[in-house]
Amino acid sequence: MRNRIFLKAMGAFVAVIAAATLTLDISIRHTWENAVHNDIEKLLVQNAQGFALRVENDHQHSLQQMAEEEARITETRVTIIARNGVVFADSEADAQTMENHAGRPEVVAALAGKIGSSSRVSHTVGIEFLYLAVPSGDKIVRLAYPLSSMQQQISSIRANLLRATILALLLALVLAAVIAEVISRRLRRIVRFAGQVAAGNLSARIAVTSGDEIGQVAMALDRTARRLEENFAAIRESRSELEALLNSMTDGVIAVSPDMKVRWANHAIAGILHQPVRIGVPVVELLRHPDFLATINEVLKSKRRESTIATSLSGRKSFSVTAEPLPDGGVVSVLHDISEIERVEKTRRDFIANVSHELRTPLTSIRGYSETLLESDGLLNDGARDFLQIIRRNAERMGRLTEDLLVLARVESGEEKLDLRPHSARILLAEAASSMQEDARAAQVELIIEEIPDWSVLADNYAVHQVFGNLISNALRYAQSGRKIVVGAHERQSGIEFFVRDFGPGIASEHLPRIFERFYRVDKARSRESGGTGLGLAIVKHIVLNHGGSVRVESSVGHGTTFFFLLPQV
Ligand code: ADP
Predict the structure, then answer these.
(1) Residue 148: what pLDDT?
(2) CATH number given to 250-332
């Protein structure tokens, strides 16, 4: 890590420095060489022009003398040429032996009255010269500067420049190494700090001493760690508050993960199961109850709230189990102990059943004796006969009430097991209606059976008969004015829904929510008068619920009432 950052920074620095030095070196050297060349050329022009003036005016010295003298002073080769190209004098060669110079480019230019200049290797001397020729009266003077000495100067300057460049490069490298090391060290500190935070040490802090970009990154990370620590503390606090709250509950609360493992449970669960709860174990190892496990599975699948009653979940206790899906796919379930409620309910039911049972015999004998007395002629006067009839009617009513109470107690307790088998909905409907046909005729009501397809439902034949009996006799009793009752069924998503419809007075909407409660009557006097006990619909509801179905009612005052009950389809 250290090497990587350091080496990368160093690499970048070296590349930048080398590029800068190289560009600088190339451009400076080039400019400088040009400048040297120009300076020499300028000097040569000045010297040549001065010399041309002298040659023109000095008549005391020979041309050869003047050429040699000038050559000494200016450290150049000096040649004096006639306008026809013949060489008069030369400071370094014998003028007599030299060839005609009329064709030399610098001489050609000087003959045209200009300053001629040219660089080339001399035929006579054999080295490279910069030639410069100017007119001087009827002659041409030419100064030649050996380029080798100029190149010597240039190479010595070049060597100096190279040394300086290498020195600068070395210095820059040292500086770059120091800077790279400082940056790398600061980054390493940040990386170490970020590693600590990532590993969960949220109390780790980094001291920031600089405000540059690296410092800002460190500051931002520091702020993030601080905020994370605060948020985690807040979450921890609210979690422990929630745990304390859930642990204080008497109801058991258990959270299960999507793979059916125990994620959390409150203290009450351990109390209910008489064993400590181990987090992470499969829930089936902790709570091996089929109804409970089925409910959890159902919620995991459907992602909807489900509830059930789990009997004998812990010893002889019963619990109402409610399970809700959790946002992450798990399930949380609340187990509420209903053993005591069930015990009280059972005591109440038993009491009612016992009382009803005990009342049966005396009621039968009251009814029997009153009937016998009523049938015996001449034994009674008219007043006594009226009283006896009242006694008999009430004994019959009490008989019906005790019978209904017994039936309700049985269906409510669920003790009486239903004989559930697949039945044809059409046959169930036809049988129920035909057994009520006689009553309908007596009440002068038309009982219409709607034609339905041959659906199959899971039902107890006898119990469904009871349901139809109660609903049709209610319709006959309360809806005579309609003179018509329709029975039929419809297919629904969750099963087959049967209905009994009348066109009687209907039930006001405020009564509908309570109509299936036991002893709930819309018109008490009328119910009593017509022999009603107020238990018929409660019996209907419990029988249908025992089938796993549901009941509902629709009614409109003045137009009639329809009772519906749904049975599971096979
Ligand atoms: P009851 O023995 O009094 O008929 P039920 O439980 O069968 O008891 O019915 C409860 C009440 O619902 C009745 O008292 C009556 O007021 C009302 N009810 C039931 N069926 C009908 C109906 N088809 N039309 C109007 N009211 C009805």
Answers:
(1) 83
(2) 3.30.450.20
